[in-house]
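Weekly sync notes, structure subgroup
Attendees: PM, AL, DS (notes)

Item 1: joint prediction request from the bench team. They want all two components modeled as one assembly rather than separately. Inputs as received:
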Amino acid sequence: MTTATTTHATPAAGAPGGPRLRGYRAGDLPLLTGSWLPGELLGLPVPGRPPLADPATVPPPASDRPGDELYVLPGTAFVRFTEVDWIHRRARLETGFAPGADAHVRALLDAALGHARGTLGLRRVYGWVTPGRPGAEDVLRAVGLAREARIPHALWLDGRPVGRQIWGMCSDD
Amino acid sequence: MTETTAVPAPRAVPADTGPTDGGGPSPTPTPALLTPGEAARALTDAPVRLTRGFLGLDPVTRNTALLARQITDREIRVTRYDRALLGYTVNPLQPRQVMVATTSTDPAPLEALLDFLAVYQRATSFVAEVPDGSPVLTALEGCGFIPGGILRGHLFHTGRYRDVLVLHTDREG
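Output from the run, pasted for the record:
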């Protein structure tokens, strides 16, 4: 079920010596489950989740689902481009960080966005953001993302629907 | 695989939906749920200006086989209502929220779909995404949809990247 994808070693965009993404391998499976919110662009662990709450998870690459691109920063985080559309040159980005990996957030997002532009040739990257995490918007703005839309009641969380936002960026051709 | 399943009549079916896209009114429109293959062919045959961006699908750049696969994978339901095509897919992270689409400029078919989803799916929140300048925007506004934001350069259409409008409306359960 777990298959290795083509390995793309990618230096962080504009950050020599920064984190290097590589293609997902079967041994990275534990990184794909965690306590972040499902589909979140900035998938940091959410403190205080009920013990019985389902953890978020993303599927490993599969031959019958060719539309996903999955990368990891080994032992730290995954980067997933999903809903990839090669004609409209866009993809939805989601990430998931292991506990204690907060220090890598900015560098990983930079690397992911650089990979989207430079290696995948995508023009547009966007993703879901659930507001409420202090400092998150500053990080997103710092890497070049902008808030584009608000959608109320988009996620069932802690017993009630909460709004989410769509953040995105377009690269100039 | 090719049978057409009739769906229960919406609660408030208008007596006259009016012309939708150049066709005459049908006195008693009967909604008919289409199979993925039928839906793909119907979207391909419909006018492009009404179908591009229909629930994120693109009948111009996808052939019917790929459209049918995307419809199946995303659990999209497409219904023919008189001469209009209506589509919806439930938000898997919030089952009371549904993304909807229409090919009609008349709000009546979409209103009937919203009533059906409110009654049979207990949906309370509805979201739509339409390309900027789409003629179906009038139908959405007629059903009470309000702007939630703009996805910049989300769609490549006739030689340039175009924005996509995000709209939403709520119905109390």
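Discussion: The CA atoms of residues 1 and 87 of chain A lie 29 Å apart.
Action: AL to compare against the crosslinking data before next sync.
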